[in-house]
Amino acid sequence: MAKQADTKTSPVRGSRTGRPIMVLLDLLGRRWSLRIMWELRDGPLTSRALRTACDEASPTVLQARLTELREAGFVELGDGGGYGLTPLGQELCETFMPLHRFAERWRR
Amino acid sequence: MAKQADTKTSPVRGSRTGRPIMVLLDLLGRRWSLRIMWELRDGPLTSRALRTACDEASPTVLQARLTELREAGFVELGDGGGYGLTPLGQELCETFMPLHRFAERWRR
DNA sequence: TCCATCGCTACAATTATCGTAGCAAGATGC
DNA sequence: GCATCTTGCTACGATAATTGTAGCGATGGA
């Protein structure tokens, strides 16, 4: 791969300040990031199952997001295969849960 | 512009199902969407002030996001100029507030 | 009138994402 | 052994999104 070396996902694309909230908003603002977290909320999925859950999103970008989310510590590759949320990732995911109710109200 | 006609932002790029949560995750998963909501949390900003707050992001995409967020009902253009959150937008923004605390803990 | 700022747009260059195909490694069955 | 399978993951050309710079018409003061 050797695209993103060792830091986070990149020299923080969306913010020069490096404030954690900006880094987080940028990371989650990339395509499929939020969706991936959302789809993993009920438990681990294999890479292909995740792809199916994400409307057959291209494996290229899915792999990229997965790597980023893994480096961020939100997602991990289970020993028996399959991607799942880390405890930290679950915590983050629960932060989004109110979004579900909000979205339902919002559709009108 | 005439790119997105009258529906939401597009025929729901990130999801074919049209489930509100997917539409929302997709909308917020576009670049600068989350950031814009975040920067408007303390009150309205002029388009240029918002641009400054968003690390000089290009006005092209900022306008695009602003239009989408306006069509979604989260942002409005105040009578005296300046973009601000609608009551609905404030509600959504408050949903993100826990993210701030989370991000601070996460940076380590 | 001159100047500043407002919201907003054009346009080319650069990135990111898509879509399809396929790899190597590890199971499983025969 | 040896065919399958499925796993995580990658290559690569085509397409769509984003960037950066410049500037528009309208509005409001001096």
> Beta-strand percentage of chain A?
5-15%
Q: Using DSSP, what is the number of strands of chain A?
A: 2
Largest interface in this structure: A-B, 36 and 36 residues
Helix tally of chain A? 5
> Considering the protein shown, what is the CATH homologous superfamily of the domain at 34-106 in chain A?
Winged helix-like DNA-binding domain superfamily/Winged helix DNA-binding domain
- What is the highest CATH level, the class of the domain at 34-106 in chain A? Mainly Alpha
Alpha-beta content class of chain A: mainly alpha
Please give the CATH architecture of the domain at 34-106 in chain A.
Answer: Orthogonal Bundle
How would you describe this structure to a colleague?
The structure is a homodimer of 108-residue chains. The first copy, chain A, is mainly alpha-helical. Chain A has a domain at 34-106: Winged helix-like DNA-binding domain superfamily/Winged helix DNA-binding domain (Arc Repressor Mutant, subunit A, Orthogonal Bundle). Helix content of chain A is 52%, strand content 6%. Chain A is built from five helices and two strands. Chain A has helices spanning 20-28, 33-39, 47-53, 59-71, 87-106; strands at residues 75-77, 83-85. The first copy, chain A, has a two-stranded antiparallel sheet. In chain A, a hairpin with a 5-residue loop joins strand 1 and strand 2 (83-85). The longest helix of chain A has 20 residues, at 87-106. Chain A is globular. Chain A binds chain B through residues 14-17, 19-26, 28-35, 38, 55, 72-73, 88, 91-92, 95, 98-100, 102-104, 106-107, and chain B through 14-17, 19-26, 28-35, 38, 55, 72-73, 88, 91-92, 95, 98-100, 102-104, 106-107.
